[in-house]
Amino acid sequence: MLWITRFSGFFSAALAVLLLSTVSAIRSSYPDADFRESPTFRNSDECRYSGEDSGVCSPYYVHVAITLDIDYLRGSIAAVNSILQHSICPENVFFHFIVSEINLESLIRSTFPKLNLKIYYFAPETVQPLISSSVRQALEQPLNYARNYLADLLEPCVKRVIYLDSDLIVVDDILKLWKTGLGPRTIGAPEYCHANITKYFTGAFWSDKRFNGTFKGRNSCYFNTGVMVIDLKKWRRFGFTKRIEKWMEIQKIERIYELGSLPPFLLVFAGHVAPISHRWNQHGLGGDNVRGSCRDLHAGPVSLLHWSGSGKPWLRLDSKLPCPLDTLWAPYDLYKHSH
């Protein structure tokens, strides 16, 4: 059995060299992808069994889905770091990373060596033919639509997931958000009923009797799709991916909205959303498509800060022109060149 032991040792060493070379290759190809290793975060004594032996299907996991791409990688890593730092049971959080570039797996594993995670490849061609031009090019990226396909990408045993954008930090225990009751609804999110939902759709939408009755009797409110609790079991049962795709097909022909992946969600779910406390999405901190615009927090408690909009905290910090709230993001940044 000695030769087996030696071969096993050789194989492990070769695998380690391959992993390091892959990470080095990514970092040489993408200079921005250079991150410090995260500290290891352990469960407190009050946490239940983490489900290590059960894999992704453990009933004790809090499931979180986040996309990973080169442009927003720094934000995604900061978001994960913030979740771990504020979780009482960080080892019970399972991260589902959705990627369109498969070479990011080695980098994320080297940054978070002890993280419960799985990488899912989202093929751009899944949604590319359905994407229409938007007010910002970033909103046209196929990965921006991956949230529409979580029910297909994740294992059937994953019945609930928290979807989070890459430009936010969590400053509270994610378990509190996970335990939110959805009642009969399929998704939960903070709603903003004072916002004018009509502005998200074109005159062609409101003047066409085929479409303008869509929201009738629904008490529809705006919600931001960057923070959602999703009942995947209901989503699969009622085929919501196909419903969203249907509106995207109509958009390609009729041009009924201007803003990326949000309007189809509003068309399908507005008025049918389980309301979640606004503390879980203090959004708009990036500014409304105006470079250099800074925003204040809304009144009330804060559990999650979200830099939705055109300005991102890592870019403003690097330019030495940060907004005041960007300094709250900085402590979670693991990018090596930022300190």
Automatic annotation (TrEMBL):
<keyword id="KW-0961">Cell wall biogenesis/degradation</keyword>
<keyword id="KW-0735">Signal-anchor</keyword>
<dbReference type="GO" id="GO:0016757">
    <property type="term" value="F:glycosyltransferase activity"/>
</dbReference>
<comment type="similarity">
    <text>Belongs to the glycosyltransferase 8 family.</text>
</comment>
<keyword id="KW-0808">Transferase</keyword>
<dbReference type="GO" id="GO:0012505">
    <property type="term" value="C:endomembrane system"/>
</dbReference>
<keyword id="KW-0328">Glycosyltransferase</keyword>
<dbReference type="InterPro" id="IPR029044">
    <property type="entry name" value="Nucleotide-diphossugar_trans"/>
</dbReference>
<keyword id="KW-0325">Glycoprotein</keyword>
<keyword id="KW-0472">Membrane</keyword>
<dbReference type="InterPro" id="IPR050748">
    <property type="entry name" value="Glycosyltrans_8_dom-fam"/>
</dbReference>
<feature type="signal peptide">
    <location>
        <begin position="1"/>
        <end position="25"/>
    </location>
</feature>
<keyword id="KW-1133">Transmembrane helix</keyword>
<dbReference type="Pfam" id="PF01501">
    <property type="entry name" value="Glyco_transf_8"/>
</dbReference>
<keyword id="KW-0732">Signal</keyword>
<dbReference type="InterPro" id="IPR002495">
    <property type="entry name" value="Glyco_trans_8"/>
</dbReference>
<dbReference type="GO" id="GO:0071555">
    <property type="term" value="P:cell wall organization"/>
</dbReference>
<comment type="pathway">
    <text>Glycan metabolism; pectin biosynthesis.</text>
</comment>
<protein>
    <recommendedName>
        <fullName>Hexosyltransferase</fullName>
        <ecNumber>2.4.1.-</ecNumber>
    </recommendedName>
</protein>
<keyword id="KW-0812">Transmembrane</keyword>
